[in-house]
Amino acid sequence: MKIVVLDGYLVNFDHIPWRVAETFPDLVWYDETPPELVAERMREAGAVFANRALLGRETLEGSKNLRYIGVFGTGYNIVDLEAADRLGITVCNIPSYSTRAVAQSAAALMLAVANRVVAFDRFLKEGRWRAACDPGVTAIPTAELWGKTAGILGYGEIGRAFGEICRALGMRVLATRRTPGAEEGVEFVDLETLRRESDVLSIHCPLTDETRGMVNAAFLAGMKRGAILLNTARGAILDEQAVARALDSGQLSGAGLDVFAREPAGGDHPLVRHPNCVVTPHVSWAARETRARMLEAAADNFFSFLEGSPRNVVNHPQF
Q1: Which of 100, 234, 269, 291 is catalytic?
Q2: What are phi and psi of 192, to 5 degrees?
């Protein structure tokens, strides 16, 4: 079986040992594959691993030998699942590998925004702190999170882990999810209540047709004035222009973002350049420990598939 990794650089740029590569020395590894070369590079493959490369209907139909797609990640919106079902291609993802890392990233963004870490860091490095009673220092407002309300939109494993951090900081935690239920330390509320009462709103839901662009101008107008918005899920959940306008008007006091609708997001992006927005380049999952966990799970998925008992299957292939 020909095995192809289409875009493995971000997953394993520092050469973590991987059982699949060790077991199949003929594996073809590409650090990155431009869109126009995806179909060509996977045409003869029986198994493909991808991180962000888009595997659409035409590409899958042209890969006559393909029987397995391993997604390097939890989200699997890069794959046309309907085509994979019809063509008998098993698609497996990796749930839970980045739970703690992404929750930690969301918390880091929240603290950076509330404490204006980037602004103060720049202030000092530019040599502008010249007096104890410096109006330049007091012009940068900070916020104490103790006693504030954290809202979690999408209470899966990452949302739950982020909620634990918020409670440790003395915050009240509200959450919304498709199947609400009782859980100690969390109040499950409807979306209207969540956005109205949250001082910090953190996005942890998947990108679907329903959630695409849901955080739009109307949504933001219904939030508490001066709230903080965090997104470590998928960039397209936000209407980014609307978020930029909300920051301009003060409807949002700040935002912390690790993801964008189009990536990489350039320096001309309205949120990347906004002074009240702390941004990172989609790295919440990228700690070495986290990626090692991902690679191990990807190997487990693949070997389970070869043994006839696939795990973490996200589609319904027709055999």
Answers
A1: 234
A2: -60, -45
pTM of the entire predicted model: 0.91
Do the Cβ atoms of 118 and 257 come closer than 8 Å?
no
**Known catalytic membership, residue 263:** yes
98-128 confidence digits (pLDDT tens) = 999 999 999 999 999 999 999 999 999 999 9
SS3 123: helix
pLDDT in the model for residue 179? 80
Q: Is 157 a catalytic residue?
A: no
In degrees, rounded to 5, the angle at the alpha carbon of residue 74 between the alpha carbons of residues 73 and 75 is 100
Q: How far apart are CA 271 and CA 241, in angstroms?
A: 8
Determine whether 308 is exposed, middle or buried from the number of CB atoms within 10 Å of its CB (0-12, 13-18, 19+): exposed
Q: In what order do the strands lie in the sheet with 3-5?
A: 28-29, 3-5, 47-50, 68-71, 90-92
262 is a catalytic site residue: no
